[in-house]
Design the sequence.
């Protein structure tokens, strides 16, 4: 999941070097944390959170294939 989020985020931002993605397990759920440069935050969130929702939907669909529970946090 980490690689998927990283590829999507780097395609969206102006400063792909500022993208970092980490994974950790919390209570049986995989938490993927996405950090971007503050200048690129709006591009990752999108108007009314549409881009962020789309990223979460893609990740959840990929996780459903593996029968895992995943959440994406954007910071």
Sequence:
């Amino acid at each position: 999941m980490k690689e998927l989020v990283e590829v999507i985020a780097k395609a969206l931002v102006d400063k792909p070097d500022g993208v970092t993605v980490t994974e950790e397990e919390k209570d049986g759920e995989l938490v993927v944390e996405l950090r971007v440069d503050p200048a690129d935050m709006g591009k990752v969130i999108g108007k009314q959170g549409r881009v962020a929702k789309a990223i979460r939907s893609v990740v959840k669909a990929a996780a459903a294939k593996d029968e895992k529970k995943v959440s994406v946090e954007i910071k």
Q: What stands out?
A: The CA atoms of residues 13 and 60 lie 22 Å apart. The two ends are 17 Å apart (CA to CA). The helical segments are 2-12, 41-45, 50-65.
